[in-house]
Amino acid sequence: MPEPALTRDVVVIGGGPAGLMAGIAAAQRGRSVAVFEREPESCIRFLLSGAGDAPVSNTGLDVSRFGGRHARFVSDAIAQLPLPALRDWFADHGLKLRNAEHYGHVVAPGGGTAVRDTLLGALEDAGAELYAGVTITRAEAVAGGFALVIDGEPVSANALVLATGPSPTGHALAHGLGHDVAPATPAHAALATDEPWLASVAGLWMDVRATLHAGNRALATREGSLLFQDGAVSGEVVFNLSGLAAGMRDLELELDFYPEQSQEDVAEWLYRALGGGTREFAPAALDRMLPQRLAEAFLRILGVKANARAMHLELKDRQGLLKLMTALRLSITGARDPETRFGGASVRQVDPRTFASRVTPGLYLAGEILDVQPDWGGFGAHFALASGQMAGRHA
Ligand SMILES: Cc1cc2nc3c(=O)[nH]c(=O)nc-3n(C[C@H](O)[C@H](O)[C@H](O)COP(=O)(O)OP(=O)(O)OC[C@H]3O[C@@H](n4cnc5c(N)ncnc54)[C@H](O)[C@@H]3O)c2cc1C
Questions:
Q1: What pLDDT, in 10s, does the model give residues 145-166?
Q2: Does residue 374's CB lie within 6 angstroms of at least one atom of ligand 1?
């Protein structure tokens, strides 16, 4: 074996939020650290995540926002770096995070670029080196550490942190070092539907309770905002359910437009709005309960003419409206335009207190290379930073 061109205590593969945080934490402990990033710039994926205002975290940060079976796994990382501690960390490095107006997003003035620059500044201050534009495809566990080949040159490290996000080369590296890797499936996606009437309400936002069903089984229920599109639904609530759609058949999305009220209350309200004696046209009578376009679409679905008087609606139409307003079913044909992918290295083979591999000594895995399933809206970024910090503290 030729002499290594570079020897470091810790080599980090991946210069996203997880990798940079791991590099910072390890270098702050006096370790010699080199971070290798495939792209000419680091944190590219993170920068894409918010059109300039990438969320770093979320005011609703809680383990329950990480897909069921992963909640326990992320709990140590979140406990070690909860939101107030993350705010303090960035404030100590000169960046004051703020709460965005919507979705509980926690963002930085200056957007994702400011976050990235702060991480890069902290990495440099800690004395770690960053090599950009370098893809690592080979890493081998050897006695006392790891042997890597970078641009044809041998590199050695005592400890190795894999923080490649959901990249296929990262998954191959993890697999080569003994880890089970679940195939990546689309997540944070719109859900496509061939209901033709959706075109008439495209662009409309609603707050809903949504339940995704596969055949007779309810997969999960979430509340939040939903956007109607031509041929699809998207928005926070759909993104958070879409990861469950992969590989499922007979999918239906059930929507309740009154998540905070019981069906009885909505029924009473509806019957009052339609009134016994009102001569208003039905869409106008529904105006207090639904946006006009949605009311018109529902009446069309029921075969009620737009010029029907509210007082003339038959009982079956009133019952039909109640059903559409509280349990509308959309048949789902698949996921569309995914923003990310779920899958990756199995969390069962990683110690959640250190992010050390349980399979290969000296190996650490952090961020979205792991098969965790964060909700949309800054939860993944927070986990990447928290797990990166823990990996760097132990590597
Ligand atoms: C459009 C979009 C929307 C998103 N929306 C949200 C959101 O709302 N909320 C949220 O929390 N998250 C969101 N994300 C995901 C968010 O970007 C991640 O949470 C975060 O970036 C994860 O950080 P990471 O460091 O684990 O992985 P990444 O950011 O993916 O970083 C990994 C880095 O490793 C590099 N790399 C990969 N393979 C190699 C290799 N072999 N050698 C060298 N370098 C390599 C990559 O170039 C990359 O820079 C979104 C992402 C996108 C693209």
A1: 999 988 888 999 999 999 999 9
A2: yes
